[in-house]
Amino acid sequence: MDATPFSTQGARPLGPTLPGAGRPQFGQGSASAMSMKWSALHDAADAVGAMAGIAPQPMKADVRNFPALMRDLGGWRRELAEQGIEDLSAIMEPGVSALLAAHARGANPAAAAMALWSEFQIARDAVLALAPPKGAGGPIRRA
Known about the structure:
The chain has helices spanning 26-52, 61-64, 66-73, 75-104, 110-128. It starts with 25 loop residues before the first helix and ends in a 15-residue tail after the last helix. Helix 1 packs parallel to helix 4 (75-104), helix 1 runs antiparallel to helix 5 (110-128) and helix 4 (75-104) packs antiparallel against helix 5. 15% of the residues are buried. It is an all-alpha fold. It has a domain at 33-128. It has five helices and no strands.
């Protein structure tokens, strides 16, 4: 093995740098985290639904785009949406763990899974209610 010290002084990148590479702005990073949590919550809800005997449902565009909408709106709506998603996670995480533990012990978790799935749907709909009604953004302006 060569013990020659390595120096990057004066070195140039091997290829072109990526546009926008570097540290993301805080707002973009938190919106991305919100999108990932939102998606993971729906994946967990699909798993709970499967345990309850409910077929997975395709995610509608307004539900899928909710985190991006909240990012664009900002302010109090975004803060409440982030808190609502955290609250949903706090409900789902121990619930899914309990369902899996019951299933591992040979119990039928269908009734408990149905209850958790219903609670998720109700809580998620409350979070979705933070989005302004369609068409409430004011008149469309064109240049």
